[in-house]
Design a protein that fits this description.
It is built from 4 helices and 3 strands; from the N terminus they run ββααβαα. It has helices at residues 22-41, 60-88, 96-117, 133-159, and strands at residues 8-10, 16-18, 93-94. It is globular. The protein starts with 7 loop residues before the first strand and ends with a helix.
Length: 162
Amino acid sequence: MPPPPRVIERAGDGRFRLRLTTAERHLLRELPAELAALLDSGADDPSLRRLFPPGYAEDAGAEAEYQELMHGELLGRHRQALAVLQETADSERLDSAEVDAWLVALNHLRLVLGTRLDVTEELYEGEIDPEDAELGVYLYLTWLQEQFVEAAGEAASSATPE
């Protein structure tokens, strides 16, 4: 049995072709909007901690200064990547800059959801509950990210002269 067709492929024009269902595209519009709203709320939500990692965990003063300097910049980058994903979720093709933003946004969504679900390496060793919708979304985002990485890797290897 041949493998299923890829949902993300490098197109002949150097862009990336997306073959996503309507439901997938809807999800990819909604999730960034939800995370952006959480970021904009200013809530001290523990699931956001991996998006704003400490720079100086052992020095509270240096950490406060670091967060004061970097939090706004990180927040802006997070919002930008999420906006690109949300705005291009219905696109049939993405350019390299959009793919980069998708990869960043998918990673942010995975980090937040993975933190909420307390995902560890052991997740993949045990039985996965097919009824767990949040875990299903996490695994879908992981798979989609892998699809992009594989498509980008194939493009890079085909561009390398022998």
